[in-house]
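Can anyone check this?
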Amino acid sequence: MNAREIIRLDVTESTNSIALELGKKGAVSGTVVVAAAQTGGRGRLNRSWLSLPGMGLYFSIVLRPRLAPENLPKVTLAAGLALCKAVEAAYSLSPEIKWPNDLLLGGRKFGGILTETESVAGSDSSPSTLVVVGVGLNLVHPEGGYPADIEERATALSLHAVRQIPSEILLETCVAAVEKEVQRLEKGDFPVILTEWLQRDAIQGKILTWVTPQSKLVTGVSLGPDADGVLRIRDEAGTIHTVLSGDVNLVGKIPE
């Protein structure tokens, strides 16, 4: 990576936490924090991300996108598309995306994205937005298997790929892909990004349950994300619900 600053750590609690702190101290866009293991890897909805030594690729990218606040949630979808493209190119596989941030192979999760934002002072002292995109990819299946609570829904690239890609090359490919898609987002190309994202949508047309932030259970068919990247679910009564947050699962699946 040309002149890119990469902070390499053996173990850290969370690469996102480090990247956010570096970003608040002025780290330039494109700075990467990568760790061999995380003791407190974070996922969406305050879940943990298993980050075993030597088993995965765990990294975070500092970004300062020129986007209006209402467009920031689209960064996660752009990153998901980017990572799918990176895996497709590196491994000749066809990963899918479960809205908003899970990467799947064979219906099982091998990767996840956690996007976090902070309002910071810009170079002219006006507020700007710091965005950190955190990525966890399972590269190798643990010899003893995954913990029982995720064994049935987790997978690793090594179980699907004919060839193995050095983690350093995969890191470079993934970071470059994320930056490229975010640049497209900045140019207003989200309709094209969304079209390509929908081609990899793992849940469109399938029956879902959605646990709303108010703990109400909604069951319906996924209509996929709309022009703003917001997931829509149509229930049996024909009511269309917009999903901004909360838990979304395929019917019959264990909540993730």
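Reply from J.R.: I decoded it. The first strand starts at residue 6 and ends at 12.
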